[in-house]
Amino acid sequence: MVRKILALTLFLSVAAFSRVITYTGVSEKSQADAESNAMAGIAKQISVDVHVQENLYQEYSANDSKESYNSKVNLKSNVKNLKDLVIETMPFDGKQYKTKVSLDIEKMTASSRKELEKLKNKIEDLNSRISASIDNRNYSDIESNLKELNTLFEKYEIIFNDVKKWVSLDDSFYLEKTSHVLRERLVRKLESVHIEPLYIGEQRNIFSVRFKAYDDEGPLKDFPLSVKASKNKTIKVRTMKKLGIVDVTIYREQLLDNFIKVKADFSTPLLKSSGLNNDIKVTVISESSKVQVRYNCLVDGSLNNKICNIIKRKLNKLGYEFAENDSLPELNLNIITQFLSEKQAGNITLEYYEISIEAKGPNINFEDSLKSIGHNKENALTKAAKNLKLHK
């Protein structure tokens, strides 16, 4: 009779087992087949998935059909991959091949149970520290600790679910996940937090802004804040101990608008839950501090819109607004270029210039000279204009 088993997958789950289990596999075909049968027999006594793959090879003759096959058994488990199996090959008795397989359940799970103990201690310690931080209103590292707590619980759950397939675990190993409870306590605390600016000052285009963070119980120490000056400029700070204040320095050229934004530096879900997700806008340049001028710009005695507009945007950040009105004071920008030399970079010829820039007008008397290199004069000018550190 031809056996046409191409692929057989067995899923066996039997909970009852002894502390040490053994099974002797026999086969009339080969020692490897006896070993496979022994492993399958072990699998029938424990909670584990057994995958048996039998590759069938058939040889056909004119009068009959013959077959030969080999079997491969893979025992799969997340608990040490059954590395503690003891396989004993027994002598061939002339009729049958025999293999004895033994598995010490206690030995196999010992390291995993020890790892559970370590994780349990870490979880309990971290849980206590987070709880104390919430009670003491110390929020500096609380969110990263909550994430770590979740990670520890996930690791614990994976090992726990594997180990309990093999041995009985006492009640002390059944942990209640507490991270969501701690997070709810944290949100309730954050709901009473207030952030406000105390002082705004400016000196030579450098703004100093002092913030205070406090709740119903008083100032908050080490409270994380995120201060956004522009799309690409965010400053992360923490309030000073006891006073709950922090000073932030912002350069005028960093500003995209006349205000900055500040909020608590926590993850978005936590901020939404606590009501701290809305940015607080703080005006650092008032409308009254802006100066309206007529803008006159010349590059080597001629108009150059590209270069003049680059510097015009820098002047706007310094508080200048521009209009075509003869009654307004003038802000004159004069740029002079001087060709210095040519430089060869492989097959490319680059031109080297010295560029002098002068800006004169209300509250500004700026002069600077810088060197720039480019494919041509316009390219060198563009680089110089973009890199210019303009100030009043």
Percent range of helical residues: 25-40%
- General shape: elongated
Chain-averaged pLDDT: 79
H/E order of the elements? EEHEEEEHHHEEEEEEEHEEHEEEEH
Strand content: 35-45%
* End-to-end distance: 100 Å
The count of β-strands is: 19
Overall structural class, as computed from helix and strand content, comes to alpha+beta
**CA radius of gyration:** 38 Å
Strand order of the largest sheet: 16-15-17-18-19
Total helices: the number is 7
| Largest sheet data | 5 strands, mixed
Number of self-contained structural domains: 4
Q: Poorly predicted ranges (pLDDT <50, ≥5 residues)? A: 1-18, 47-81
Main features:
alpha+beta, Immunoglobulin-like, four-stranded antiparallel beta sheet, 28% helix
Task: Compile the SSE list and pairings.
Blueprint: E1 8-13, E2 20-27, H1 31-43, E3 47-60, E4 65-76, E5 85-90, E6 97-104, H2 105-135, H3 142-163, H4 179-190, E7 194-203, E8 206-215, E9 218-219, E10 224-230, E11 233-238, E12 245-251, E13 259-264, H5 268-274, E14 280-283, E15 291-299, H6 305-317, E16 320-322, E17 330-345, E18 348-361, E19 364-374, H7 377-387
Parallel strand pairs: 15-16, 15-17
Antiparallel strand pairs: 1-3, 2-6, 3-4, 5-6, 7-8, 8-9, 8-12, 10-11, 10-13, 13-14, 17-18, 18-19
